[in-house]
Amino acid sequence: MRSALPRLLAAALSLALAAGCAPTYRREDVAKTVQALCQTEHRLDVSARQMGDTIAVHLRHEGILDRQGNQIGLAANANEVLGNVLEVLHRVLLSSQPMMHFYLILVSDPAVPGAYLTIVRYMEDVRRANANMIPPTELFARTILDLKYDANLPNINFDQITLSDIQLQQFLSWQLAKRLQGHLTTSLQQQGLSVADVGPCQGDFKNGEFVFTLNVNLPEGAAAQQDVTQQLFQDATSVISKVLADYRFQSFDAIRLLHPATGRSMLLPRSSLELFR
């Protein structure tokens, strides 16, 4: 099952940044407040749960997903509907103290059973975008999007997916895996290797290390393949070091890069990352 997200999603996710205001919502009431406001103000079928510093919101809305043959994407009305949910989320979370760290939105459509979209954001990124410290394009780059299809889950709900309090290192591993796929695709095209197959990269954080699997298959017979692989590692390290520096995140020991197609790997301690910025 192939999936596609139309460009309007970028617009929807950049909408509805709330203006700054004094705290008006109690932190312990955030989930029920978001749920109630979505239901009363926009008549949306929304449920919400709070897990530590993370709030999860399930939007169940008929017609928000569109299936055309083997492609699934967002329908034309998704911009408005998602914008309404985001406006409520941002309004409540930005005006509650202490502020929640993350939100996760689960989007499903009863008319497209088995398909579901998850959206994850770090509230500090939203706050910085709200203060014009980062542009909407950068906020979108920092947003985790994952559209899946599972025929065994025709009626997706919170009980069928793993929910937990999201940690910053976990979020950064997801974000960097997403960024790496796009960056490496562009890098290979610039090297004249546009036919190289760049699939979704994998990111994880364990034992103090960020581990990234570069899902890149170079064309058979590619000249100087070893040099190209080395360039992939350098490009990936440059992206990783810049993003971690932007977040001022230093609670890790090293990054490890894996390239299964060649069996090569690279381990870099945190202290050496400044050389790649």
What does this structure look like?
The protein has 277 residues and is an alpha/beta fold. The protein is 34% helix and 27% strand. Helix 2 runs antiparallel to helix 3 and helix 6 packs across helix 7. The model has no long low-confidence stretch (mean pLDDT 86).
Assembly state of the chains shown: single chain
Shape annotation = globular
The share of residues in helices is: 25-40%
- Provide the gyration radius in Å: 20 Å
Helix segment count? 7
Q: Output the strand order for the largest sheet.
A: 3-4-8-9-10
Note the main sheet. Answer: 5 strands, mixed
Low-confidence stretches: none
Order of helices and strands: EHEHEEEEHEEEHHEHEEEEHEE
Termini, distance in Å?
38 Å
Number of strands: 16
Q: What's the mean pLDDT score?
A: 86
What percentage of amino acids are in beta strands?
25-35%
Question: What is shown here, in short?
Answer:
The chain has 277 residues and is α/β, with parallel strands linked by helices. It is built from 7 helices and 16 strands. The two termini are 38 Å apart.
Write the topology of this structure.
Elements: E1 2-3, H1 8-13, E2 25-26, H2 30-42, E3 46-51, E4 54-60, E5 65-68, E6 71-74, H3 78-94, E7 96-97, E8 102-108, E9 115-122, H4 123-130, H5 136-141, E10 144-149, H6 168-190, E11 197-198, E12 202-206, E13 209-213, E14 216-217, H7 225-246, E15 254-259, E16 264-269
Parallel strand pairs: 1-6, 2-7, 4-8, 13-15
Antiparallel strand pairs: 3-4, 5-6, 8-9, 9-10, 11-14, 12-13, 15-16
Helix pairs in contact: 2-3, 6-7
List the defining traits of the structure above.
five-stranded mixed sheet, 277 residues, single chain, 16 strands, four-stranded mixed sheet, alpha/beta
